[in-house]
Design the sequence.
């Protein structure tokens, strides 16, 4: 699984020793408010998420990464690409620990994940969904060039559906160094 360095962060494979930190992040009700069914996850559920991430990479050769700070490898969340619920569309998703909100980290890693999807996976289009009340996430999608298309129902909720094509994406907007 490749790794990516951005200006301040590293997108790298999830490791077994990441489970406790990711479980701490995903146990926070504020972090999980707009993810899935909106409830915090147990350590066992996070372990299953990591297993699913590794399985997705094995089968599809793309997926989600652990997001770590470059200077000390502290895990601050997850980011990457996976299939949108019950579709063949590739979805961008990200989760960050609350202390790292409002610092541009989500925009930084989301742009890098888009660049990877277009440059390395050769996707033609990537989508993202966000709850309409999740204004911070909607702003991230706007900053990385995704455009609102429609309201739709995914994950048992009404969400704002966004998309971007390879032609619309500006790779220079993503600080990115691919490490193999």
Sequence:
């Amino acid at each position: 699984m490749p790794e990516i360095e951005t200006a301040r962060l590293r997108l790298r494979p999830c490791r077994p020793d990441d489970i406790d930190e990711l479980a701490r992040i995903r146990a926070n009700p504020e972090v999980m408010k707009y993810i899935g069914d909106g409830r915090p996850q147990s350590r066992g559920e996070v372990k299953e998420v990591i297993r699913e991430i590794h399985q997705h990479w094995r089968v599809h050769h793309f997926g989600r990464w652990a997001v770590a700070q470059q200077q000390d490898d502290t895990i601050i969340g997850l980011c990457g690409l996976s299939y949108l619920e019950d579709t063949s569309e590739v979805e961008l998703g990200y989760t960050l620990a609350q202390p790292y909100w409002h610092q541009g980290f989500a925009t930084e890693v989301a742009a890098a994940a888009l660049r990877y999807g277009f440059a390395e996976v050769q996707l033609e289009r990537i989508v993202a969904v966000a709850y309409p009340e999740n204004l911070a996430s909607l702003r991230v999608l706007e900053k990385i060039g995704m455009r609102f298309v429609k309201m739709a129902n995914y994950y048992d909720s009404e969400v704002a559906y966004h998309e971007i094509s390879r032609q619309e994406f500006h790779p220079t907007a993503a600080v990115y160094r691919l490490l193999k």
